[in-house]
Predict the 3D structure of the following.
Amino acid sequence: MEIDIEIIRKLAQPSTLPDGGKIVLAVLDGLGGLPIEPGGPTELEAARTPNLDQLAKEGTTGLSIPIARGISPGSGPGHLGLFGYDPLRYEIGRGVLEALGIDFELGPDDLAARGNFCTVDEEGRIVDRRAGRIPTEVGARLCERLQKETSIPGYEIFVRPVKEYRFVLVVRGPGLVDGLSETDPQRTGVPPLPIKPLTDDPAAARTAELLNDWLEQARRVLANEHPANSLNLRGIAKDPGIPNFQEIYQLKAAAIAVYPMYRGVARLCGMQVLSTGETMASELDTLEQHWDDFDFFFIHFKYTDSRGEDGDFDAKVKVIEEVDGYMSRIRALKPSVLIVTGDHSTPALLRSHSWHPVPLLMWGTTVRPDDVTTFGERACAHGGLGRFLAKEIMPMAMAHAGRLAKFGA
Amino acid sequence: MEIDIEIIRKLAQPSTLPDGGKIVLAVLDGLGGLPIEPGGPTELEAARTPNLDQLAKEGTTGLSIPIARGISPGSGPGHLGLFGYDPLRYEIGRGVLEALGIDFELGPDDLAARGNFCTVDEEGRIVDRRAGRIPTEVGARLCERLQKETSIPGYEIFVRPVKEYRFVLVVRGPGLVDGLSETDPQRTGVPPLPIKPLTDDPAAARTAELLNDWLEQARRVLANEHPANSLNLRGIAKDPGIPNFQEIYQLKAAAIAVYPMYRGVARLCGMQVLSTGETMASELDTLEQHWDDFDFFFIHFKYTDSRGEDGDFDAKVKVIEEVDGYMSRIRALKPSVLIVTGDHSTPALLRSHSWHPVPLLMWGTTVRPDDVTTFGERACAHGGLGRFLAKEIMPMAMAHAGRLAKFGA
């Protein structure tokens, strides 16, 4: 079923379609849902979605499996799959995701870690792993101090606040590698652990030494602060070296997302990130403004996931209905292929990402229609596309846009 | 689509569900069937199954492909798939299966072979590969003689009767390996073959020598018997070293089965085998008695397969109806996830295991319902789960029981 992205690279070509072969991938984060009462509708089924239903009726539908059956994806792997990468092969480390989440432009040599301020007692033992959830302003002030008062000779460092006790450390310079242990012992009553190399690579031992030296400096700086008088580093990672999206698919590709982390993942894959506003409507404005400049648009709608995580069924329904309203604006642009799906399910019932397959519709002039006339989980189970892995969506999109050459003679 | 069991091992966690996350895997052996007349119902469709239909209506359904499309599984690979192992990777040799089938507790160093008594002429050429299908009592007496009158110095041997001309030889001791040829030439008119190593491993040559010596002794013992005056060894194999089920899934797992072979496969995977009676009703008693002690129950119903093998459509229908009656007892225990399926199809029409996909229903609080309202082959073809490999059932069951952590950040 599954084809290697390197084969797609060989087959990718400029569109053969007269309409230009533009592709829109509209991602409603956490779209898939569950009924809140037995036998009831899911969020998507409960939503009034005349535009999505019309697209489903004219197009084809199916159910997307983000990673594999039973697996609930994080946002990183969920989007890697949508972009055609094998999420089991390319892993975006926590430190990298955290850096992307604050719009930090990570370079290929950068090593990123998620930092947590914590509280230690006089013996250096952790008494609060989150430093009493200090306010974001305090975290920001501490980051400023660390930025000014610490250094790693021969390297550039960036200490950037995220939220409350969370921050990002990025070290920039030659020869840094990942494959390092974390300092957080994940419990109180013991001191933070030293960073250790997890491989035999001498560069890992050297990177660990640099970071341990920095941690010592940082702890001296924080010693008289209260309650954030120490810190931990987690998920120390580098850019995983994902093959460039625009090169693989021969597409000028743009990403439109309100939340930094999704912009970051798109940038990591090599898409051009467009600046946009804070609302979903502003994302549509951005799409329209840049329509002529790109072949592929990834447009990300965050709030379906947010309301699912809140456990608010009705609010998730409303977000879906709002996105439904934007479909006419996308149709008016006349894309060659329009795909509407999610990166995973976030049922309000579960208040979390889940493993359930995600409804998908594909609409365009070369799409073979099926019998499905509405967009919903039960309906998509009868769709013409059946079940497929999320990483198979891009090859299908490319094909329907006239952008994949014949395989073999 | 398929995820390595080692990734599942990393994601496995105690259940996050308030109901405790217990899983019941109810296997109706050889459940899948075929119509006996064109356009007619299958055995499952013909059966009156109000309880299974209700479960299908409230839950979700699909079709399980035991190994791969077109492949008819033996009982070993069929169950390995259901337990989440790749049946193409872990092979349970015939000797091991035969030993499991007589409830022999095989150890990790044991080498097991299936033995067949046979008849040879004065020149040592086989004239009857089954020794005239001698009565089971005669086979048992011959095994007793071999047990007493043969030996392998430095090793323990076990010669155990199975049925008629069939027996099991187990050799216990250090340094034994499999990868050996069989003695049975699969035709008459020629003498049994010597056992030969199939690999370059010196241990294989040594193991072959030990077994050939034992065969010489055994043939001397049997020389004056009639008609079973010789023997063959087949499927010489060791425990394939299957990763422990309870460790992989972090589940306390129990197996309930009337037939020894299924208990044996479950034990080989590391489940705890519960003693039970001779009837399906007694298996339900066992399930109820041990409900509080385990997180996972594999309960095996044999007679759907037996009646299929008999070619008795109506009798298979009756067995299905009997099992349907037990569903209310399982529901009353309030499992978090209940799965009802088979290890393969055994259509009465074919009187044998077949390759046809197997109906499956999954029921529980986190299950996304589909449009299917009855449990049957045609209905399950429209199910929300679509088609999947049997080895994907356990990841799905784990997810629905709140027992799999999120993959990636």
